[in-house]
Design brief:
heterodimer; A: 286 residues; alpha/beta; four-stranded antiparallel β-sheet; 7 helices; 10 strands; 34% helix; 23% strand; B: 455 residues; alpha+beta; Jelly Rolls; MetI-like fold; 2 domains
């Protein structure tokens, strides 16, 4: 389905899109019962790197993503993008912007717009392109991603795997520095998922954008990521960081390789321990 | 590939079969005879293949009996790839398309089936000779094809192909399927399923009970009730005893006056209620100011407003419209607000992420996202506008169905009361249906999504 990939060096060539998370704390305080969701979390993500955040459901990963995207305030600490402060103790909420685009867990293509108009949305509302130019660009970007033929359909008319790909293309239309993916493949079946992984890598090799990818699936994390960060459950902070030394470009043969299995073994315990903690704490999904 | 078994068939039988198939219905008898002359009646056994994807498309088939599975090729982006067709359906319409000479589908008999096979080229020749009828047949086929495919590009392609045979276009227009053909098709489909008959049964039960309780059993509560026969006689009488029937001008004047009042009130309620509801849902501050007042006024029934309305408005006409407007407005505004609140937060976040400002989020996310609820609100609004209208007309006004019911009561014209009630029901139902149709049209994305059963 996808053409084999051109060999690309593993080291990221992009100069922008570095995220630095510095001592971030987030306390949810809803009516007396304060919950410490993120506790002095520090993390460096290089420009053009795929950083996978692994942790059990409800551990506070999404809180971190929301802080970077500018949906939520942080309590203290700061987050920088290429050295510029996004949010800090003084200015706790970042401004959402097209340099950091989120691909949502349940998909957020506008169901009332055609796929093409969805993809063209960003440049049009930003006033960068006329609707006609934007559609033209959207058409060619969709064609590049193997999505021709469904431009004039509504999102409800195509498969969920295809919707995710369209959503990623919609994000890339804006030439973002960072893609923030919040368990985008959670609702997909495992076969579609495997196709989606290769599709994402292919898009990544072409665009070299920094990817901040939240998942609870360790295999997915090691298969895709340059770096895998395993998080502790509430409060959320890095427990273990793994540099994946499998060369990019990767394809599905990696899954059966010896090194891949070794890496899984090395990290599995840490993940399992946190999952158990989350389970006994009875954290709600989400 | 095919095992054709020609049976003895007279032209008349073929004409009869063609007439049972929607695209051929109502065509001139002579044309049907000449089509029959170039047709062959064939019978196929179970599991026989009629044609496969990629076969040369020469013939069109009209199903006379049996069941046939029609599976479109995977690349054809149809609404449903596989469907089962039966008596009266037409398959193999690729044979009359201009540029498509290959089958797009595979058709297989699920049971022993009889078909009428018509050669596509012969058919086109006959249609060219009789342009008006040929045009009608082709446009019906086009509407059938368009029903089968939802992908707009495909439809466009089919339309262009349909437009190609110049000889078939006497005026250059009318080749795209018109509303009448589609309505007829829907009607014929509807008549073939049990729903209309159940509906008729429901009406029959109601009328039967009415008849028996008043005229046969003479139940105590029903002693003064007008009987069903009296009402119907009065309603369709050329010289009605009480002065109101479908032959009197008065009757239509009352209907028109009521409808016009509802239209004005409904229009005002929509124009004011939708923006008001959008603001309630969108702006927290606006809601904090306004919503408590709104909630306090909402439960007050229109009838309670009658005295104040009469005091406030000099003319009774504007008082009636004001009362009608009031309930509609609350229904529209409340549902619109709920619509805004029902929008998934991720759509709003996604729009901000993609660089939209607040105004653009409002226009591109809030308004279309609330639309399904807005239309539910408008349907409710249309319904309640009728009942507050009648309440208002009973109190003031000189015309209108509410006025009819009220004066008929004081003047002891009992059958006319019931005529007024039934007419209200019919007119009210029709206006609500119009709102529903408009809503479905504006929210095609939603109907298509629901029709395809996407998650």
């Amino acid at each position: 389905m996808f053409t084999r990939l051109m060999p690309v060096p593993v080291t990221a060539s992009r100069s922008s899109g570095a995220i630095s998370i510095d001592q971030v704390v987030k306390v949810y305080d809803s009516g007396g019962a304060a919950v410490l969701a993120v506790d002095h979390c520090s993390l460096e993500i290089e420009a053009g790197e795929i950083c996978m955040i692994v942790g059990p459901s409800g551990c506070g990963k999404t809180t971190l993503l929301n802080a970077i995207a500018g949906f939520h305030e942080i309590t203290s600490g700061r987050i920088l993008l290429d050295g510029a402060v996004l949010c800090s103790t003084e200015r706790p909420k970042a401004e959402p912007g097209s340099d950091r685009i989120v691909v949502f867990q349940n998909g957020a293509l506008f169901p009332w717009k055609t796929n093409l108009d969805n993809v063209a949305f960003g440049p049009v509302v930003q006033g960068q392109l006329s609707p006609r130019q934007a559609r033209q660009k959207a058409r060619s970007m969709m064609a590049d991603a193997g999505l021709s033929g469904v431009e004039l359909n509504y999102p409800g008319e195509v498969s969920s795997g295809m919707r995710r790909r369209i959503e990623i293309v919609r994000a890339l239309m804006n030439d973002p520095k960072v893609l923030l993916l919040d368990e985008p493949y959670r609702a997909l079946d495992s076969l579609t998922k495997s196709v989606m992984h290769e599709a994402l890598l292919e898009i990544y090799y072409r665009n070299k954008v920094t990817i901040f990818f939240i998942t609870h699936d360790l295999e997915e994390a090691i298969f895709l990521g340059h770096k895998v960060v395993i998080m502790t459950t509430r409060p959320c902070k890095p427990k273990k960081t793994l540099e994946v030394d499998i060369a990019h470009p990767r394809d599905y043969s990696v899954l059966t390789s010896k090194r891949f299995r070794q890496l899984i073994e090395e990290t599995n315990d840490a993940v399992h321990e946190e999952a158990l903690k989350a389970f006994s704490a009875g954290e709600k999904e989400g | 590939m095919m095992h054709l078994a020609y049976s003895d068939s007279t032209i008349e039988e073929l004409v009869a079969i063609l007439r049972r198939s929607f695209p051929f219905q109502g065509l001139p008898y002579d044309l049907l005879r000449s089509i029959s002359a170039v047709s062959r009646r064939i019978a196929l056994e179970e599991r026989a293949t009629i044609y496969r994807v990629g076969d040369a498309a020469d013939d069109l088939f009209v199903v006379a009996s049996g069941k046939i599975e029609h599976a479109l090729g995977p690349s054809s982006s149809a609404t449903r790839l596989v469907k089962v067709v039966g008596a009266g359906d037409v398959i193999g319409w690729t044979a009359v398309l201009e540029n498509q000479r290959k089958r797009l589908a595979t058709a297989t008999c699920l049971e022993r089936s009889e078909l009428v096979r018509i050669n596509g080229n012969e058919l086109l020749k006959l249609l060219e000779a009789d342009k008006p009828a040929g045009d009608a047949l082709m446009s019906r086929l086009a509407s059938k094809i368009i029903d089968d495919f939802t992908v707009p590009e495909w439809v466009v392609q089919v339309r262009e192909v349909m437009a190609a045979p110049e000889a078939l276009r006497p005026t250059g227009a009318g080749l795209t399927p018109n509303g009448m053909d589609r309505t007829l098709l829907r009607l014929s489909l509807w008549l073939r399923n049990p729903r209309p008959y159940l509906m008729l049964l429901g009406f029959a039960l109601l009328l039967g009970f009415w008849y028996l309780s008043v005229e046969v059993w003479k139940l105590p509560r029903f002693r003064e009730m007008p009987s069903v026969t009296a009402v119907i006689k009065e309603w369709i009488s050329r010289r009605p005893t009480y002065g109101l029937s479908i032959y009197t001008e008065e009757y239509y004047k009352h209907i028109w006056v009521s409808t016009w009042r509802v239209m004005q009130a409904f229009f005002l309620a929509t124009v004011i209620g939708v923006p008001f509801g959008l603001m309630l849902g969108w702006s927290r501050k606006f809601k904090q100011y306004v919503f408590p007042v709104f909630e306090l006024l909402r439960p007050i029934p229109a009838l309670a407003w009658v005295p104040l309305a009469i005091v406030m408005f000099v003319s009774s006409e504007s008082a009636v419209i004001y009362l009608t407007f009031l309930t509609s407005f609350f229904a529209t505004a409340l549902n619109t607000m709920l619509g805004v609140q029902s929008i998934d937060e991720s759509y709003i976040r996604a729009a901000y992420c993609l660089g939209a400002d607040r105004r653009q989020v409002f226009r591109h996310v809030i308004v279309p996202g609330a639309l399904p609820f807005v239309f539910t609100g408008l349907q409710i609004s249309m319904g309640v506008s009728w009942f507050s209208l009648v309440a208002a007309e009973m109190v003031s006004g000189q015309y209108g169905l509410g006025f009819v019911i009220n004066t008929s009561y004081t003047m002891v014209r009992y059958p006319t009361i019931v005529i007024g009630m039934i007419t209200l029901g019919i007119v009210g139902y029709s206006t609500s249906a119009l709102v529903r149709i408009a809503g479905n049209y504006l929210m095609r994305w939603r109907t298509r999504e629901l029709a395809l059963g996407a998650q």
